[in-house]
Design brief:
about 160 residues; alpha+beta; Aspartate Aminotransferase, domain 1; globular
Length: about 160
């Protein structure tokens, strides 16, 4: 009498840090050039993040940073979180970043939902607002969003 096939894959084994099945050969590890590693390494500090930027993103992000700093608690600190700058006070309040054609603010989905009517002129996702670099930064709106996020954060214990 024949055994029924179980439908399972051949057993996998670990070989040199890679998962492989008995029918495959291990791949040769690619060597990362030191130059490439330097370019793609995540910034370790906010200043290092800013040092990598060029105009017009650099000026725009400085304005956003100053607007955020003006409304967060005085003892809030700046950190790198998810490879981008953020302000933290007990927990991360907001993240902000520069891209080729826009700067983004990440104030959480709840804040974006609260201000959805005021954000109609901007591209948004669930947790992100994009501010185009070819238009003036809406600093009063950014301050309003960050104040709301601080209030939201302070309300949570």
């Amino acid at each position: 009498m024949k055994k029924a096939k179980s439908g399972k894959r051949p057993s996998a084994t670990r070989h040199a840090g890679a998962l492989r099945t008995p029918a495959t050969k291990p791949r040769a590890a690619k060597k990362a050039s030191p130059k490439r590693a330097l370019k793609t390494a995540a910034p370790q500090t906010v200043d290092e993040y800013f040092d990598r930027l060029s105009e017009p993103a650099l000026s725009a992000l400085h304005k956003i940073r100053a607007a955020i700093r003006s409304v967060v608690p005085a003892d809030a600190i700046e950190i790198i979180s998810y490879k981008i700058p953020a302000f933290k006070h007990k927990r991360v309040l907001v993240w902000y970043a520069a891209f080729a054609n826009h700067c983004s603010l990440f104030p959480t989905a709840a804040v974006i939902d609260t201000f959805k009517d005021e954000l109609k002129g901007f591209s948004t996702t669930k947790g992100t607002i994009h501010f185009p670099l070819d238009k003036p930064m809406p600093l009063a709106l950014i301050k309003k969003l960050v104040k709301a996020r601080v209030g939201q954060s302070e309300g949570k214990k």
